[in-house]
Protein backbone atom coordinates (compact mmCIF):
# COMPACT_ATOMS: atom_id res chain seq x y z
CA UNK A 1 0.00 0.00 0.00
CA UNK A 2 2.63 2.48 1.07
CA UNK A 3 4.71 1.90 -2.06
CA UNK A 4 1.68 2.79 -4.19
CA UNK A 5 1.39 6.02 -2.32
CA UNK A 6 5.05 6.77 -2.79
CA UNK A 7 5.03 6.01 -6.49
CA UNK A 8 1.95 8.06 -7.17
CA UNK A 9 3.01 10.81 -4.79
CA UNK A 10 2.35 14.30 -5.98
CA UNK A 11 5.75 15.54 -4.91
CA UNK A 12 7.86 15.91 -8.02
CA UNK A 13 10.87 16.85 -5.96
CA UNK A 14 10.80 13.59 -4.04
CA UNK A 15 10.06 11.57 -7.14
CA UNK A 16 12.90 13.16 -9.00
CA UNK A 17 15.46 12.15 -6.41
CA UNK A 18 18.20 10.31 -8.23
CA UNK A 19 17.37 12.06 -11.47
CA UNK A 20 19.84 11.53 -14.27
CA UNK A 21 21.05 8.16 -13.13
CA UNK A 22 20.81 5.93 -16.21
CA UNK A 23 17.72 3.77 -16.50
CA UNK A 24 18.04 2.63 -20.10
CA UNK A 25 21.43 2.20 -21.74
CA UNK A 26 22.09 1.06 -25.29
CA UNK A 27 25.65 0.60 -26.58
CA UNK A 28 26.27 -0.28 -30.22
CA UNK A 29 22.81 -1.79 -30.38
CA UNK A 30 21.99 -3.63 -33.60
CA UNK A 31 18.82 -5.37 -34.60
CA UNK A 32 18.45 -7.07 -37.97
CA UNK A 33 15.29 -8.80 -39.14
CA UNK A 34 15.82 -11.65 -41.54
CA UNK A 35 13.05 -11.51 -44.07
CA UNK A 36 12.42 -13.28 -47.36
CA UNK A 37 13.68 -10.17 -49.14
CA UNK A 38 16.94 -10.30 -47.24
CA UNK A 39 18.06 -8.68 -43.99
CA UNK A 40 16.40 -5.47 -42.74
CA UNK A 41 18.61 -3.33 -40.52
CA UNK A 42 15.93 -1.99 -38.20
CA UNK A 43 18.53 -0.63 -35.75
CA UNK A 44 22.18 0.06 -36.52
CA UNK A 45 24.81 1.02 -33.94
CA UNK A 46 22.39 2.74 -31.60
CA UNK A 47 23.97 4.45 -28.57
CA UNK A 48 21.55 5.97 -26.12
CA UNK A 49 21.32 6.74 -22.44
CA UNK A 50 18.04 7.61 -20.81
CA UNK A 51 18.23 8.98 -17.28
CA UNK A 52 15.76 8.49 -14.49
CA UNK A 53 12.73 10.74 -14.72
CA UNK A 54 13.42 11.85 -18.27
CA UNK A 55 10.71 12.25 -20.89
CA UNK A 56 12.28 11.01 -24.11
CA UNK A 57 10.59 11.22 -27.49
CA UNK A 58 11.62 9.13 -30.48
CA UNK A 59 10.83 10.84 -33.74
CA UNK A 60 11.48 9.94 -37.34
CA UNK A 61 9.80 8.80 -40.52
CA UNK A 62 8.04 5.46 -40.77
CA UNK A 63 10.34 2.48 -40.78
CA UNK A 64 13.24 4.15 -38.97
CA UNK A 65 13.07 1.67 -36.12
CA UNK A 66 11.26 3.66 -33.41
CA UNK A 67 8.91 0.83 -32.62
CA UNK A 68 11.70 -1.72 -32.84
CA UNK A 69 13.83 0.22 -30.35
CA UNK A 70 10.94 0.53 -27.89
CA UNK A 71 10.10 -3.15 -28.32
CA UNK A 72 13.73 -4.13 -27.76
CA UNK A 73 13.71 -2.18 -24.49
CA UNK A 74 10.50 -4.02 -23.57
CA UNK A 75 12.04 -7.43 -24.42
CA UNK A 76 9.54 -7.91 -27.24
CA UNK A 77 12.35 -7.99 -29.83
CA UNK A 78 15.80 -9.46 -29.40
CA UNK A 79 18.82 -7.37 -30.42
CA UNK A 80 21.27 -9.08 -32.73
CA UNK A 81 24.25 -7.14 -31.46
CA UNK A 82 25.51 -4.65 -28.88
CA UNK A 83 24.29 -4.26 -25.34
CA UNK A 84 21.06 -3.03 -23.85
CA UNK A 85 20.25 -2.69 -20.17
CA UNK A 86 17.12 -1.56 -18.38
CA UNK A 87 17.52 -0.61 -14.72
CA UNK A 88 20.97 -2.20 -14.98
CA UNK A 89 19.48 -5.57 -15.96
CA UNK A 90 18.85 -7.39 -19.21
CA UNK A 91 15.54 -6.38 -20.80
CA UNK A 92 14.15 -9.82 -19.98
CA UNK A 93 15.01 -9.54 -16.30
CA UNK A 94 13.60 -6.02 -16.27
CA UNK A 95 10.36 -7.19 -17.85
CA UNK A 96 10.00 -9.93 -15.26
CA UNK A 97 10.74 -7.40 -12.52
CA UNK A 98 7.84 -5.31 -13.88
CA UNK A 99 10.12 -2.44 -14.72
CA UNK A 100 7.90 -0.93 -17.39
CA UNK A 101 4.35 -0.42 -18.52
CA UNK A 102 3.78 -0.48 -22.27
CA UNK A 103 1.09 1.50 -24.09
CA UNK A 104 0.41 0.34 -27.63
CA UNK A 105 -0.91 2.51 -30.44
CA UNK A 106 -4.31 0.86 -30.19
CA UNK A 107 -5.78 1.01 -26.69
CA UNK A 108 -6.25 -2.76 -26.79
CA UNK A 109 -8.85 -2.84 -24.04
CA UNK A 110 -10.80 -6.08 -23.67
CA UNK A 111 -14.40 -5.47 -24.75
CA UNK A 112 -15.69 -8.04 -22.26
CA UNK A 113 -14.18 -6.22 -19.31
CA UNK A 114 -15.27 -2.95 -17.78
CA UNK A 115 -12.78 -0.09 -17.62
CA UNK A 116 -11.94 -1.07 -14.06
CA UNK A 117 -11.75 -4.73 -15.09
CA UNK A 118 -9.27 -3.79 -17.79
CA UNK A 119 -7.08 -1.85 -15.36
CA UNK A 120 -7.22 -4.78 -12.95
CA UNK A 121 -6.14 -7.27 -15.61
CA UNK A 122 -2.36 -6.89 -15.21
CA UNK A 123 -2.83 -6.76 -11.44
CA UNK A 124 -4.73 -10.07 -11.51
CA UNK A 125 -2.03 -11.58 -13.67
CA UNK A 126 0.62 -10.36 -11.25
CA UNK A 127 -1.25 -11.79 -8.29
CA UNK A 128 -2.24 -8.70 -6.34
CA UNK A 129 -4.94 -9.18 -3.72
CA UNK A 130 -8.49 -8.13 -4.58
CA UNK A 131 -8.43 -5.23 -2.17
CA UNK A 132 -5.12 -4.03 -3.56
CA UNK A 133 -6.45 -4.32 -7.12
CA UNK A 134 -9.47 -2.19 -6.27
CA UNK A 135 -7.36 0.42 -4.51
CA UNK A 136 -4.83 0.69 -7.32
CA UNK A 137 -7.49 0.78 -10.03
CA UNK A 138 -9.20 3.60 -8.17
CA UNK A 139 -5.96 5.56 -7.87
CA UNK A 140 -4.78 5.26 -11.45
CA UNK A 141 -8.22 5.94 -12.90
CA UNK A 142 -8.28 9.10 -10.81
CA UNK A 143 -4.82 9.94 -12.12
CA UNK A 144 -5.99 9.79 -15.75
CA UNK A 145 -9.25 11.53 -14.86
CA UNK A 146 -11.51 8.58 -15.51
CA UNK A 147 -13.12 8.38 -12.07
CA UNK A 148 -16.78 7.57 -12.48
CA UNK A 149 -16.21 5.44 -15.59
CA UNK A 150 -15.16 2.28 -13.72
CA UNK A 151 -18.31 0.36 -14.62
CA UNK A 152 -18.42 1.43 -18.28
CA UNK A 153 -17.38 -0.86 -21.08
CA UNK A 154 -14.67 0.28 -23.51
CA UNK A 155 -17.08 0.73 -26.41
CA UNK A 156 -19.02 3.20 -24.32
CA UNK A 157 -15.99 5.51 -24.21
CA UNK A 158 -14.44 7.82 -26.81
CA UNK A 159 -11.10 6.93 -28.40
CA UNK A 160 -9.27 9.44 -26.21
CA UNK A 161 -10.82 8.06 -23.05
CA UNK A 162 -9.96 4.52 -24.10
CA UNK A 163 -6.35 5.51 -24.57
CA UNK A 164 -6.34 7.15 -21.11
CA UNK A 165 -7.69 3.89 -19.69
CA UNK A 166 -4.88 2.01 -21.38
CA UNK A 167 -2.36 4.42 -19.84
CA UNK A 168 -3.98 3.84 -16.46
CA UNK A 169 -3.59 0.11 -17.02
CA UNK A 170 0.12 0.55 -17.80
CA UNK A 171 0.55 2.62 -14.62
CA UNK A 172 -1.40 0.33 -12.33
CA UNK A 173 1.48 -1.85 -11.21
CA UNK A 174 4.02 0.82 -10.35
CA UNK A 175 6.51 0.32 -13.12
CA UNK A 176 8.82 3.31 -13.06
CA UNK A 177 9.25 3.28 -16.83
CA UNK A 178 6.39 4.04 -19.18
CA UNK A 179 6.91 3.08 -22.83
CA UNK A 180 4.41 4.51 -25.29
CA UNK A 181 4.30 3.75 -29.01
CA UNK A 182 2.35 6.50 -30.80
CA UNK A 183 -0.35 6.29 -28.16
CA UNK A 184 -2.27 9.27 -29.55
CA UNK A 185 -1.55 8.60 -33.23
CA UNK A 186 -5.12 7.63 -34.04
CA UNK A 187 -6.74 10.58 -32.26
CA UNK A 188 -7.74 13.96 -33.63
CA UNK A 189 -5.59 16.97 -32.87
CA UNK A 190 -7.81 18.62 -30.28
CA UNK A 191 -8.10 15.46 -28.19
CA UNK A 192 -4.40 14.95 -28.67
CA UNK A 193 -3.52 18.39 -27.31
CA UNK A 194 -5.53 17.71 -24.17
CA UNK A 195 -4.03 14.29 -23.67
CA UNK A 196 -0.53 15.71 -24.17
CA UNK A 197 -1.19 18.32 -21.49
CA UNK A 198 -2.52 15.63 -19.15
CA UNK A 199 0.39 13.36 -19.89
CA UNK A 200 2.83 16.10 -18.86
CA UNK A 201 0.93 16.61 -15.62
CA UNK A 202 0.90 12.92 -14.97
CA UNK A 203 4.63 12.74 -15.60
CA UNK A 204 5.23 15.64 -13.22
CA UNK A 205 3.14 14.00 -10.52
CA UNK A 206 4.61 10.50 -10.82
CA UNK A 207 8.20 11.15 -11.83
CA UNK A 208 8.18 8.16 -14.23
CA UNK A 209 10.75 7.74 -16.94
CA UNK A 210 8.87 7.96 -20.22
CA UNK A 211 9.82 6.71 -23.69
CA UNK A 212 7.40 8.12 -26.23
CA UNK A 213 7.28 7.35 -29.95
CA UNK A 214 5.70 9.93 -32.22
CA UNK A 215 6.02 11.32 -35.68
CA UNK A 216 4.65 14.72 -34.78
CA UNK A 217 7.35 17.36 -34.30
CA UNK A 218 5.23 19.67 -32.11
CA UNK A 219 4.21 16.76 -29.92
CA UNK A 220 7.82 15.67 -29.45
CA UNK A 221 9.04 19.18 -28.63
CA UNK A 222 6.12 19.97 -26.34
CA UNK A 223 6.45 16.82 -24.25
CA UNK A 224 10.11 15.97 -24.07
CA UNK A 225 13.15 16.69 -22.00
CA UNK A 226 15.10 14.82 -24.67
CA UNK A 227 14.28 14.30 -28.34
CA UNK A 228 15.86 11.41 -30.20
CA UNK A 229 15.78 11.99 -33.96
CA UNK A 230 16.02 8.83 -36.05
CA UNK A 231 16.29 8.03 -39.73
CA UNK A 232 15.65 4.90 -41.78
CA UNK A 233 17.63 2.39 -43.90
CA UNK A 234 19.39 1.48 -41.73
CA UNK A 235 17.45 2.64 -38.67
CA UNK A 236 19.77 4.86 -36.61
CA UNK A 237 19.93 7.89 -34.35
CA UNK A 238 20.91 11.07 -36.18
CA UNK A 239 20.50 13.64 -33.39
CA UNK A 240 19.74 13.80 -29.69
CA UNK A 241 18.36 17.15 -28.57
CA UNK A 242 18.14 18.15 -24.91
CA UNK A 243 15.18 20.45 -24.52
CA UNK A 244 15.76 23.87 -22.96
CA UNK A 245 12.06 24.43 -22.33
CA UNK A 246 11.00 24.94 -18.71
CA UNK A 247 9.28 22.11 -16.81
CA UNK A 248 6.08 24.11 -16.63
CA UNK A 249 4.59 23.98 -20.15
CA UNK A 250 1.26 25.54 -21.00
CA UNK A 251 0.00 24.76 -24.53
CA UNK A 252 0.85 28.35 -25.56
CA UNK A 253 4.52 27.56 -25.15
CA UNK A 254 4.33 26.22 -28.69
CA UNK A 255 4.29 29.80 -29.99
CA UNK A 256 7.47 30.90 -28.19
CA UNK A 257 10.70 31.44 -30.16
CA UNK A 258 12.47 28.85 -27.99
CA UNK A 259 9.93 26.17 -28.91
CA UNK A 260 10.14 27.09 -32.57
CA UNK A 261 13.93 26.92 -32.47
CA UNK A 262 13.89 23.39 -31.04
CA UNK A 263 11.26 22.31 -33.56
CA UNK A 264 13.47 23.74 -36.29
CA UNK A 265 16.44 21.70 -35.11
CA UNK A 266 14.33 18.55 -35.06
CA UNK A 267 13.18 19.26 -38.61
CA UNK A 268 16.78 19.80 -39.72
CA UNK A 269 17.76 16.51 -38.12
CA UNK A 270 14.96 14.70 -39.93
CA UNK A 271 15.92 16.30 -43.23
CA UNK A 272 19.62 15.41 -42.79
CA UNK A 273 18.58 11.82 -42.15
CA UNK A 274 16.70 11.79 -45.44
CA UNK A 275 19.51 13.32 -47.45
CA UNK A 276 22.24 10.89 -46.51
CA UNK A 277 20.08 7.79 -46.78
CA UNK B 1 -43.21 -7.28 -37.41
CA UNK B 2 -40.86 -5.92 -40.03
CA UNK B 3 -38.77 -9.06 -39.65
CA UNK B 4 -41.62 -11.56 -39.50
CA UNK B 5 -43.37 -10.24 -42.62
CA UNK B 6 -40.76 -11.49 -45.14
CA UNK B 7 -40.51 -14.79 -43.27
CA UNK B 8 -44.27 -15.26 -43.40
CA UNK B 9 -44.35 -14.35 -47.08
CA UNK B 10 -41.71 -16.92 -47.93
CA UNK B 11 -43.50 -19.55 -45.84
CA UNK B 12 -46.80 -18.82 -47.59
CA UNK B 13 -45.16 -19.11 -51.02
CA UNK B 14 -43.54 -22.43 -50.06
CA UNK B 15 -46.83 -23.84 -48.81
CA UNK B 16 -48.59 -22.75 -51.99
CA UNK B 17 -45.89 -24.41 -54.13
CA UNK B 18 -46.20 -27.53 -52.00
CA UNK B 19 -49.96 -27.72 -52.59
CA UNK B 20 -49.38 -27.25 -56.32
CA UNK B 21 -46.83 -30.07 -56.34
CA UNK B 22 -49.20 -32.42 -54.54
CA UNK B 23 -51.61 -32.53 -57.51
CA UNK B 24 -49.32 -33.98 -60.22
CA UNK B 25 -47.48 -36.18 -57.71
CA UNK B 26 -50.64 -37.96 -56.56
CA UNK B 27 -52.74 -37.67 -59.77
CA UNK B 28 -51.42 -40.82 -61.45
CA UNK B 29 -52.84 -43.03 -58.75
CA UNK B 30 -56.25 -41.34 -58.90
CA UNK B 31 -56.48 -41.70 -62.69
CA UNK B 32 -55.42 -45.37 -62.41
CA UNK B 33 -58.14 -45.98 -59.86
CA UNK B 34 -60.74 -44.25 -62.03
CA UNK B 35 -59.72 -46.24 -65.12
CA UNK B 36 -59.95 -49.52 -63.24
CA UNK B 37 -63.41 -48.60 -61.97
CA UNK B 38 -64.29 -47.46 -65.48
CA UNK B 39 -65.47 -44.08 -64.27
CA UNK B 40 -64.87 -40.58 -65.49
CA UNK B 41 -62.73 -38.38 -63.15
CA UNK B 42 -63.44 -34.66 -63.50
CA UNK B 43 -60.44 -32.38 -62.85
CA UNK B 44 -61.78 -30.72 -59.68
CA UNK B 45 -62.70 -34.10 -58.22
CA UNK B 46 -59.21 -35.37 -59.00
CA UNK B 47 -57.60 -32.36 -57.29
CA UNK B 48 -59.71 -32.83 -54.18
CA UNK B 49 -58.78 -36.51 -54.01
CA UNK B 50 -55.04 -35.92 -54.35
CA UNK B 51 -55.24 -33.90 -51.14
CA UNK B 52 -56.84 -36.69 -49.12
CA UNK B 53 -55.05 -39.93 -50.00
CA UNK B 54 -54.17 -42.35 -47.25
CA UNK B 55 -50.73 -43.13 -48.65
CA UNK B 56 -49.95 -40.25 -50.96
CA UNK B 57 -46.66 -39.99 -52.84
CA UNK B 58 -46.52 -36.47 -51.48
CA UNK B 59 -48.85 -35.64 -48.59
CA UNK B 60 -50.48 -32.22 -48.59
CA UNK B 61 -49.33 -29.77 -45.89
CA UNK B 62 -52.53 -30.03 -43.91
CA UNK B 63 -52.25 -33.84 -43.93
CA UNK B 64 -48.77 -33.52 -42.40
CA UNK B 65 -50.07 -31.10 -39.76
CA UNK B 66 -52.95 -33.40 -38.89
CA UNK B 67 -50.57 -36.37 -38.93
CA UNK B 68 -48.22 -34.49 -36.62
CA UNK B 69 -51.11 -33.86 -34.22
CA UNK B 70 -52.40 -37.43 -34.45
CA UNK B 71 -48.98 -38.89 -33.84
CA UNK B 72 -48.15 -36.67 -30.88
CA UNK B 73 -51.28 -36.29 -28.76
CA UNK B 74 -53.96 -37.77 -31.03
CA UNK B 75 -55.85 -41.00 -30.36
CA UNK B 76 -53.33 -43.08 -32.33
CA UNK B 77 -50.55 -41.82 -30.11
CA UNK B 78 -51.92 -41.84 -26.57
CA UNK B 79 -53.98 -45.03 -26.76
CA UNK B 80 -57.70 -45.84 -26.94
CA UNK B 81 -58.43 -45.54 -23.22
CA UNK B 82 -56.77 -42.21 -22.71
CA UNK B 83 -58.46 -41.07 -25.90
CA UNK B 84 -61.94 -42.04 -24.67
CA UNK B 85 -61.40 -40.50 -21.23
CA UNK B 86 -60.35 -37.18 -22.68
CA UNK B 87 -63.00 -36.85 -25.39
CA UNK B 88 -64.45 -34.25 -25.80
CA UNK B 89 -61.09 -32.58 -25.33
CA UNK B 90 -60.73 -30.08 -22.50
CA UNK B 91 -57.64 -28.11 -21.53
CA UNK B 92 -57.09 -30.50 -18.65
CA UNK B 93 -57.65 -33.49 -20.90
CA UNK B 94 -55.13 -32.13 -23.36
CA UNK B 95 -52.63 -31.81 -20.52
CA UNK B 96 -53.24 -35.47 -19.58
CA UNK B 97 -52.67 -36.52 -23.18
CA UNK B 98 -49.40 -34.59 -23.34
CA UNK B 99 -48.22 -36.31 -20.17
CA UNK B 100 -49.26 -39.67 -21.58
CA UNK B 101 -47.50 -38.87 -24.86
CA UNK B 102 -44.14 -38.75 -23.08
CA UNK B 103 -44.34 -42.44 -22.19
CA UNK B 104 -46.38 -43.86 -25.06
CA UNK B 105 -44.09 -45.47 -27.61
CA UNK B 106 -46.64 -44.68 -30.32
CA UNK B 107 -46.23 -40.95 -29.81
CA UNK B 108 -43.69 -38.76 -31.60
CA UNK B 109 -43.21 -36.90 -28.33
CA UNK B 110 -41.81 -40.07 -26.76
CA UNK B 111 -39.63 -40.77 -29.78
CA UNK B 112 -38.42 -37.18 -29.91
CA UNK B 113 -37.47 -37.59 -26.24
CA UNK B 114 -35.43 -40.70 -27.05
CA UNK B 115 -33.68 -38.86 -29.88
CA UNK B 116 -33.14 -35.77 -27.74
CA UNK B 117 -31.41 -37.63 -24.91
CA UNK B 118 -28.90 -39.28 -27.27
CA UNK B 119 -28.44 -35.98 -29.12
CA UNK B 120 -27.65 -34.08 -25.92
CA UNK B 121 -25.23 -36.71 -24.64
CA UNK B 122 -23.52 -36.84 -28.04
CA UNK B 123 -23.41 -33.07 -28.25
CA UNK B 124 -21.77 -32.85 -24.82
CA UNK B 125 -19.18 -35.50 -25.70
CA UNK B 126 -18.55 -33.94 -29.12
CA UNK B 127 -18.24 -30.41 -27.76
CA UNK B 128 -15.97 -31.45 -24.90
CA UNK B 129 -13.81 -33.54 -27.18
CA UNK B 130 -13.77 -30.84 -29.83
CA UNK B 131 -12.62 -28.19 -27.36
CA UNK B 132 -9.89 -30.45 -25.98
CA UNK B 133 -8.69 -31.29 -29.48
CA UNK B 134 -8.67 -27.60 -30.41
CA UNK B 135 -6.58 -26.77 -27.33
CA UNK B 136 -4.18 -29.55 -28.30
CA UNK B 137 -3.93 -28.27 -31.86
CA UNK B 138 -3.30 -24.67 -30.74
CA UNK B 139 -0.68 -25.56 -28.11
CA UNK B 140 1.02 -28.59 -29.59
CA UNK B 141 2.97 -28.41 -32.81
CA UNK B 142 2.76 -32.13 -33.48
CA UNK B 143 -1.00 -32.14 -32.97
CA UNK B 144 -1.34 -29.06 -35.14
CA UNK B 145 0.31 -30.90 -38.00
CA UNK B 146 -1.36 -34.26 -37.48
CA UNK B 147 -4.86 -33.94 -36.04
CA UNK B 148 -6.56 -31.67 -38.53
CA UNK B 149 -6.12 -33.93 -41.59
CA UNK B 150 -7.59 -36.81 -39.58
CA UNK B 151 -10.47 -34.71 -38.39
CA UNK B 152 -11.23 -33.69 -41.96
CA UNK B 153 -10.87 -37.26 -43.21
CA UNK B 154 -13.26 -38.44 -40.49
CA UNK B 155 -15.96 -36.20 -41.92
CA UNK B 156 -15.58 -37.51 -45.45
CA UNK B 157 -16.66 -41.03 -44.48
CA UNK B 158 -20.44 -41.29 -44.97
CA UNK B 159 -21.91 -41.58 -41.49
CA UNK B 160 -24.61 -43.90 -42.82
CA UNK B 161 -21.89 -46.44 -43.63
CA UNK B 162 -20.03 -45.92 -40.39
CA UNK B 163 -22.97 -45.95 -37.95
CA UNK B 164 -23.79 -49.70 -38.13
CA UNK B 165 -20.10 -50.54 -37.63
CA UNK B 166 -19.83 -48.34 -34.56
CA UNK B 167 -22.95 -49.93 -33.14
CA UNK B 168 -21.80 -53.49 -33.85
CA UNK B 169 -18.36 -52.88 -32.39
CA UNK B 170 -19.72 -51.24 -29.24
CA UNK B 171 -22.36 -53.93 -28.89
CA UNK B 172 -19.71 -56.61 -28.98
CA UNK B 173 -18.00 -55.01 -25.98
CA UNK B 174 -21.31 -54.83 -24.16
CA UNK B 175 -22.18 -51.19 -24.79
CA UNK B 176 -25.66 -50.66 -26.16
CA UNK B 177 -28.62 -48.34 -25.82
CA UNK B 178 -27.99 -44.62 -25.49
CA UNK B 179 -24.21 -44.55 -25.70
CA UNK B 180 -23.59 -45.89 -29.24
CA UNK B 181 -26.08 -43.41 -30.68
CA UNK B 182 -24.51 -40.61 -28.65
CA UNK B 183 -21.09 -41.56 -29.97
CA UNK B 184 -22.30 -41.31 -33.55
CA UNK B 185 -23.81 -37.93 -32.69
CA UNK B 186 -20.52 -36.86 -31.11
CA UNK B 187 -18.65 -38.04 -34.20
CA UNK B 188 -20.55 -35.52 -36.30
CA UNK B 189 -20.65 -32.67 -33.80
CA UNK B 190 -17.01 -32.52 -32.69
CA UNK B 191 -15.79 -31.34 -36.08
CA UNK B 192 -17.37 -27.88 -36.29
CA UNK B 193 -16.32 -27.33 -32.68
CA UNK B 194 -12.69 -28.17 -33.45
CA UNK B 195 -12.62 -25.91 -36.48
CA UNK B 196 -14.33 -23.02 -34.69
CA UNK B 197 -12.34 -23.29 -31.49
CA UNK B 198 -8.98 -23.49 -33.26
CA UNK B 199 -9.87 -20.32 -35.10
CA UNK B 200 -11.20 -18.70 -31.93
CA UNK B 201 -8.25 -19.61 -29.73
CA UNK B 202 -5.94 -18.22 -32.40
CA UNK B 203 -7.90 -15.01 -32.82
CA UNK B 204 -5.88 -12.82 -30.40
CA UNK B 205 -3.59 -10.69 -32.56
CA UNK B 206 0.15 -10.16 -32.16
CA UNK B 207 -0.40 -6.96 -30.18
CA UNK B 208 -2.63 -8.68 -27.66
CA UNK B 209 -0.12 -11.47 -27.23
CA UNK B 210 2.70 -8.92 -26.82
CA UNK B 211 0.66 -7.07 -24.25
CA UNK B 212 0.34 -10.27 -22.22
CA UNK B 213 4.08 -10.73 -22.51
CA UNK B 214 4.76 -7.24 -21.14
CA UNK B 215 2.92 -8.39 -18.03
CA UNK B 216 4.94 -11.64 -18.04
CA UNK B 217 1.69 -13.62 -18.05
CA UNK B 218 2.00 -17.41 -17.86
CA UNK B 219 0.63 -19.65 -20.61
CA UNK B 220 -2.33 -20.61 -18.44
CA UNK B 221 -3.12 -16.94 -17.81
CA UNK B 222 -2.95 -16.10 -21.51
CA UNK B 223 -5.35 -18.98 -22.13
CA UNK B 224 -7.84 -18.13 -19.41
CA UNK B 225 -7.82 -14.36 -19.74
CA UNK B 226 -7.30 -13.83 -23.45
CA UNK B 227 -7.65 -16.85 -25.73
CA UNK B 228 -10.69 -18.41 -24.11
CA UNK B 229 -12.83 -15.27 -23.84
CA UNK B 230 -11.91 -14.29 -27.40
CA UNK B 231 -12.94 -17.69 -28.71
CA UNK B 232 -16.50 -17.42 -27.38
CA UNK B 233 -18.15 -16.00 -30.53
CA UNK B 234 -16.48 -18.75 -32.58
CA UNK B 235 -17.50 -21.41 -30.08
CA UNK B 236 -21.15 -20.45 -30.21
CA UNK B 237 -21.22 -20.36 -33.99
CA UNK B 238 -19.79 -23.89 -33.93
CA UNK B 239 -22.18 -25.09 -31.25
CA UNK B 240 -25.15 -24.17 -33.43
CA UNK B 241 -23.81 -26.27 -36.29
CA UNK B 242 -22.68 -28.98 -33.87
CA UNK B 243 -26.00 -29.49 -32.13
CA UNK B 244 -27.83 -29.84 -35.45
CA UNK B 245 -25.17 -32.30 -36.60
CA UNK B 246 -25.59 -34.25 -33.36
CA UNK B 247 -29.30 -34.60 -34.08
CA UNK B 248 -28.62 -35.92 -37.57
CA UNK B 249 -26.04 -38.33 -36.18
CA UNK B 250 -28.48 -39.62 -33.57
CA UNK B 251 -31.22 -40.22 -36.13
CA UNK B 252 -28.78 -42.12 -38.36
CA UNK B 253 -27.63 -44.08 -35.31
CA UNK B 254 -31.23 -45.03 -34.52
CA UNK B 255 -31.85 -46.64 -37.89
CA UNK B 256 -30.03 -49.94 -37.32
CA UNK B 257 -30.89 -50.23 -33.62
CA UNK B 258 -34.69 -50.03 -33.71
CA UNK B 259 -34.96 -48.99 -30.06
CA UNK B 260 -37.14 -45.99 -30.60
CA UNK B 261 -36.45 -42.43 -31.68
CA UNK B 262 -37.38 -40.32 -34.67
CA UNK B 263 -35.05 -42.37 -36.89
CA UNK B 264 -37.08 -45.48 -36.16
CA UNK B 265 -40.29 -43.67 -37.08
CA UNK B 266 -38.74 -42.56 -40.36
CA UNK B 267 -37.62 -46.07 -41.19
CA UNK B 268 -40.83 -47.86 -40.19
CA UNK B 269 -42.81 -45.24 -42.09
CA UNK B 270 -40.90 -46.07 -45.23
CA UNK B 271 -41.22 -49.85 -44.68
CA UNK B 272 -45.01 -49.58 -44.68
CA UNK B 273 -45.38 -46.80 -47.20
CA UNK B 274 -46.75 -44.51 -44.50
CA UNK B 275 -45.66 -41.31 -46.14
CA UNK B 276 -47.59 -39.12 -43.74
CA UNK B 277 -45.76 -40.77 -40.84
CA UNK B 278 -42.43 -40.13 -42.54
CA UNK B 279 -43.25 -36.50 -43.08
CA UNK B 280 -44.56 -36.08 -39.56
CA UNK B 281 -41.34 -37.57 -38.17
CA UNK B 282 -39.30 -35.34 -40.48
CA UNK B 283 -41.12 -32.28 -39.23
CA UNK B 284 -40.74 -33.40 -35.64
CA UNK B 285 -36.98 -33.67 -36.24
CA UNK B 286 -36.90 -30.26 -37.90
CA UNK B 287 -38.83 -28.68 -35.04
CA UNK B 288 -36.47 -30.32 -32.55
CA UNK B 289 -33.43 -29.07 -34.47
CA UNK B 290 -34.83 -25.56 -34.71
CA UNK B 291 -35.57 -25.58 -30.99
CA UNK B 292 -32.07 -26.76 -30.09
CA UNK B 293 -30.34 -24.27 -32.38
CA UNK B 294 -32.65 -21.57 -31.04
CA UNK B 295 -31.71 -22.36 -27.44
CA UNK B 296 -28.01 -22.24 -28.26
CA UNK B 297 -28.61 -18.94 -30.06
CA UNK B 298 -30.39 -17.56 -27.01
CA UNK B 299 -27.53 -18.52 -24.70
CA UNK B 300 -25.11 -17.07 -27.24
CA UNK B 301 -26.88 -13.70 -27.26
CA UNK B 302 -26.98 -13.62 -23.47
CA UNK B 303 -23.34 -14.56 -22.98
CA UNK B 304 -21.94 -12.32 -25.72
CA UNK B 305 -24.05 -9.38 -24.58
CA UNK B 306 -22.72 -9.83 -21.05
CA UNK B 307 -19.22 -9.97 -22.49
CA UNK B 308 -19.77 -6.73 -24.40
CA UNK B 309 -19.37 -8.62 -27.68
CA UNK B 310 -22.86 -8.01 -28.96
CA UNK B 311 -22.97 -8.25 -32.70
N1 LIG C 1 8.82 -8.40 -37.28
C1 LIG C 1 9.46 -7.81 -38.32
N2 LIG C 1 9.94 -8.58 -39.32
C2 LIG C 1 10.59 -8.02 -40.35
N3 LIG C 1 10.82 -6.71 -40.49
C3 LIG C 1 10.38 -5.89 -39.53
C4 LIG C 1 9.65 -6.41 -38.40
N4 LIG C 1 9.31 -5.38 -37.61
C5 LIG C 1 9.78 -4.28 -38.22
N5 LIG C 1 10.42 -4.58 -39.37
C6 LIG C 1 11.10 -3.63 -40.27
O1 LIG C 1 12.01 -2.90 -39.50
C7 LIG C 1 12.01 -1.55 -39.89
C8 LIG C 1 11.72 -0.67 -38.71
O2 LIG C 1 10.37 -0.88 -38.33
P1 LIG C 1 9.67 -0.10 -37.13
O3 LIG C 1 10.52 -0.22 -35.93
O4 LIG C 1 8.29 -0.61 -37.03
O5 LIG C 1 9.66 1.41 -37.65
P2 LIG C 1 8.84 2.66 -37.10
O6 LIG C 1 8.16 2.28 -35.84
O7 LIG C 1 9.86 3.72 -36.91
O8 LIG C 1 7.89 3.03 -38.18
C9 LIG C 1 11.02 -1.41 -41.02
O9 LIG C 1 11.72 -1.46 -42.24
C10 LIG C 1 10.15 -2.62 -40.85
O10 LIG C 1 9.65 -3.04 -42.09
MG1 LIG D 1 6.03 2.25 -35.39
From TrEMBL, chain B:
Topology term for the membrane: Multi-pass membrane protein
The ABC transmembrane type-1 domain, residue ranges: 108-300
GO biological process: transmembrane transport
Gene3D superfamilies per UniProt: MetI-like
Record's keyword terms, sorted: Cell membrane, Membrane, Transmembrane, Transmembrane helix, Transport
Range of residues in the leader sequence: none
Pfam families for the chain: BPD_transp_1
Classification via InterPro entries: MetI-like, MetI-like_sf
GO cellular component, one term: plasma membrane
Protein's cellular compartments: Cell membrane
Residue ranges of the TM segments: 7-27, 114-138, 150-170, 182-201, 234-256, 276-299
UniProt record similarity statement: Belongs to the binding-protein-dependent transport system permease family.
Protein name as annotated: ABC transporter permease
Protein species of origin: Pararhodobacter aggregans
Amino acid sequence: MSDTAAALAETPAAARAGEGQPVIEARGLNLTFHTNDGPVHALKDVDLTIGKGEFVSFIGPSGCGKTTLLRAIADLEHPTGGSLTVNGMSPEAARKARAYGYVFQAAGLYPWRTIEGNVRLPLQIMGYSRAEQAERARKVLELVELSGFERKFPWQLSGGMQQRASIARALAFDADILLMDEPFGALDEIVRDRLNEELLKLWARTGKTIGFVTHSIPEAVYLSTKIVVMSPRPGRITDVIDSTLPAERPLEIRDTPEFIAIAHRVREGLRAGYEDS
Amino acid sequence: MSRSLPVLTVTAVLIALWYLAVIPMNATWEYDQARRAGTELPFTEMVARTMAQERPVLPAPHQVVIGLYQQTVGCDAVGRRMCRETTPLTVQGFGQRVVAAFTSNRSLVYHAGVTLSATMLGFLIGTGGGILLAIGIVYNRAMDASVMPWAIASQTIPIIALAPMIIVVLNSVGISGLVPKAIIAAYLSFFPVVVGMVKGLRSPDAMQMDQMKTWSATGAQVFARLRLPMSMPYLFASLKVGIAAALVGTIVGELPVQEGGLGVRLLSGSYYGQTIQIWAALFAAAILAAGLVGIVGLIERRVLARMGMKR
